[in-house]
Amino acid sequence: MKIYFCGSIRGGREDVDLYVKIVKNLKSRGDVLTEHVSNTQLTHTGEAGSAAADRLIHDRDVDWLRQCDVVVAEVTQPSLGVGYELGRVVDMKKRTLCLFRPSSGRVLSAMIRGAADGERFVVSDYTEDELEKVLDQFFNTLTRT
Prior knowledge:
Blueprint: E1 2-6, H1 16-27, E2 31-32, H2 51-67, E3 70-74, H3 80-92, E4 95-100, H4 110-113, E5 121-125, H5 131-144
Parallel strand pairs: 1-2, 1-3, 3-4, 4-5
């Protein structure tokens, strides 16, 4: 199974330690195409900053989105890039899990929460202690469909 993980890079790296936990869990379930999102050395400036490099990153990531079987996105830290990716995967009709922590004090965008259909596009509020259970539940639904 090819898994695309979305998490904030240029929008802020405050949740990178959580991304590490998520990616570790996802790697036990399949091939994580975007493992670099959990790299603790990656800063908010991203992989590169030139327009040419940005184009390469965009094209590579959209290609990975096309290849993947499933998408998991941590959406607590607002990110234009993650929002863009999620818009693309909705259009591609990819099975998607969005993870949101209400304890952050943030309010999830209506464009994300409102896209949830409970089947193909799932939004799950969670705490860090519930992470493994939420991922198990989502991936178990994949094997039943």
